[in-house]
């Protein structure tokens, strides 16, 4: 399973873990991970991600729109250098908190 979800103990935040490749092959799995997260703090953990493409970038933007989150409300954490490079090239640091 490339996408997994972890509810934090406080009940107000969710961590979505992305493993392997973050591309079109995981669109539905990723949507399912956040579909009921309205009003919760969202963190997307890229610790196990080796690859991201334009479909992955689009999925992040779609999630932001679906959850009606403002710029900076969603955290992208544990980004490996190759993933962070793609996010910075796409100027995602203006839309998300990248750690």
UniProtKB/TrEMBL annotation:
Gene3D superfamilies membership: STAS domain
Cross-referenced SUPFAM superfamilies: SpoIIaa-like
Annotated source species: Enterovibrio gelatinilyticus
PROSITE patterns the UniProt entry points to: STAS
Domain STAS: 14-99
Pfam families in the cross-refs: STAS
InterPro entries, per database record: STAS_dom (IPR002645), STAS_dom_sf (IPR036513)
Name of the protein in question: STAS domain-containing protein
């Amino acid at each position: 399973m490339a996408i997994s979800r972890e509810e934090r103990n406080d009940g107000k935040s969710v961590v979505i873990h992305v493993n392997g490749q973050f591309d079109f092959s995981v669109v539905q799995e990723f949507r399912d991970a956040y579909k009921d997260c309205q009003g919760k703090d969202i963190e997307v953990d890229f610790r196990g991600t080796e690859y991201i493409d334009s479909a992955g970038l689009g999925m992040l933007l779609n999630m932001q729109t679906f959850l009606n989150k403002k710029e900076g409300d969603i955290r992208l954490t544990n980004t490996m250098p190759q993933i962070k490079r793609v996010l910075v090239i796409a100027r995602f640091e203006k839309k998300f908190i990248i750690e």
